């Protein structure tokens, strides 16, 4: 019988303003690498995880290419310990492939260590794992030259604390907070004082 205990709200931090979106031309279909497991990168990921004394996670991790990824550089699935990378990364540098792999591995490590405890996607656990993997101060969102879908933004939100206004294509999930305020005033941790509130579109200039 399911428990009647009320679940805690899902907490998210929104990206701060100024994130660049770079548009590039996509290679032709004939130049695109196929999807599938990359055994060399999987072996590399296992090596890194064993060096961090995570043999159980190393035994589970699998790295593969997924041609269905377009704007996303990579994804990590803590449930399956799988990592998927965008084949377009192969049009960049080998160093960028490895950096993206480390970025996604940090997600797996953070969730593996947290167990059933709820953590923020790019919270302190993830940042600590990034530092261990050799990419301290890793940004949460990439600015790689991957294709971007241009859609008009028709939603507006404003931080209840600092007044930062963000225009969106899709609505924020409930309990989304301003990452700029969380980083500056709460050591990067989520706090409801910095929630984004929906405002009319187009937004009127903030009155100070």
3D architecture notes:
By secondary structure, this protein is α/β, with parallel strands linked by helices. The protein has 2 domains: 10-17 and 150-208, no CATH class; 27-132, Zincin-like, CATH 3.30.2010. It has 5 helices and 9 strands, in the order ββααβββααβββαβ. The strands form 3 sheets. Strands 2-3-5-4 form a 4-stranded mixed β-sheet. A 3-stranded antiparallel β-sheet has the order 7-6-9, with no helix packed on it. α3 packs across α4 (124-132). The chain is globular, with a radius of gyration of 19 Å.
Class per helix and strand makeup: alpha/beta
CATH homologous superfamily (4th level) name of the largest domain:
Metalloproteases ("zincins"), catalytic domain
* Secondary structure tally: strands: 9
Uncertain segments of ≥5 residues (pLDDT<50)?
1-6, 16-30
Shape: globular
Outline of the structure:
The chain has 5 helices and 9 strands; from the N terminus they run ββααβββααβββαβ. It is α/β, with parallel strands linked by helices. Helices cover 27% and strands 16% of the residues.
Topology summary:
Blueprint lengths: L11 E3 L21 E2 L1 H13 L3 H6 L1 E4 L8 E4 L4 E4 L8 H21 L9 H9 L22 E5 L5 E4 L7 E3 H7 L10 E4 L9
Parallel strand pairs: 1-8, 3-5
Antiparallel strand pairs: 2-3, 4-5, 6-7, 6-9
Helix pairs in contact: 3-4
Can you give keywords for this protein?
single chain; 208 residues; alpha/beta; Zincin-like; 4-stranded mixed β-sheet; 3-stranded antiparallel β-sheet; 5 helices; 27% helix; disordered N terminus
